[in-house]
TrEMBL record:
It comes from the Bacteria. PROSITE patterns: PROKAR_LIPOPROTEIN. Residues 1-24 form the signal peptide. It comes from Pseudalgibacter alginicilyticus. It holds the Pfam family GldH_lipo. This is Gliding motility lipoprotein GldH. Keywords: Lipoprotein, Signal.
Length: 163
């Protein structure tokens, strides 16, 4: 009987801790064994309203087979009425000693990477976010065709944290 109470309290604790009140949108898409340079990961988003500002993030999961200390991404946001904003972004994935950044106790690390802050979705309709990698090896012009070690790509919208 006492064991059941502890189990129940533990489950309630886990549910309460895992709640994320800032999250508005959070979707991951799995990348096949290798992320091809022409493979675009797309997210269709219908924002909840057009009056609030939101913080936007690119989420990535990588394994120890990721060979680089940084990551270049091309992130494109297509607005409902046709306007497109394209950004080339660089993120640090490992510290100088080679230890991967991000969270996770196993060989899979989860990275929450800033994309834009205080974004107001002032156009009604569906937005589309496209993400693809733009990795190159030092001293080489041709990009990496198949990037190993990235397992999932995600996009997240949050209510900003009030400081």
């Amino acid at each position: 009987m006492l064991q059941n109470k502890f189990l129940f309290l533990f489950l309630v604790f886990c549910v309460l801790v895992s709640c994320d009140s800032n999250m508005v949108y959070d979707v991951y898409k799995t990348v096949p064994n290798k992320w091809h340079k022409d493979s675009v990961v797309s997210f269709n988003i219908t924002p909840p309203d057009s009056t609030n500002a939101y913080d936007l993030f690119v989420n990535l999961r990588n394994t120890n087979s990721y060979k680089f200390s940084n990551l270049f991404l091309i992130v494109e946001m297509v607005f409902p009425h046709g306007k497109t904003v394209t950004d080339t972004l660089e993120y640090r994935m490992a510290d100088p000693s080679g230890k991967f950044l991000g969270t996770g106790l196993t060989d899979v690390k989860e990275n929450k990477l800033w994309y834009k802050e205080q974004v107001v979705f002032d156009e009604t309709g569906e937005y589309k976010v496209n993400i693809q990698h733009a990795m190159r090896e030092n001293g080489k012009v041709k990009g990496i065709t198949e990037l190993e070690g990235i397992t999932d790509v995600g996009f997240r919208i949050e209510n900003p944290i009030i400081k």
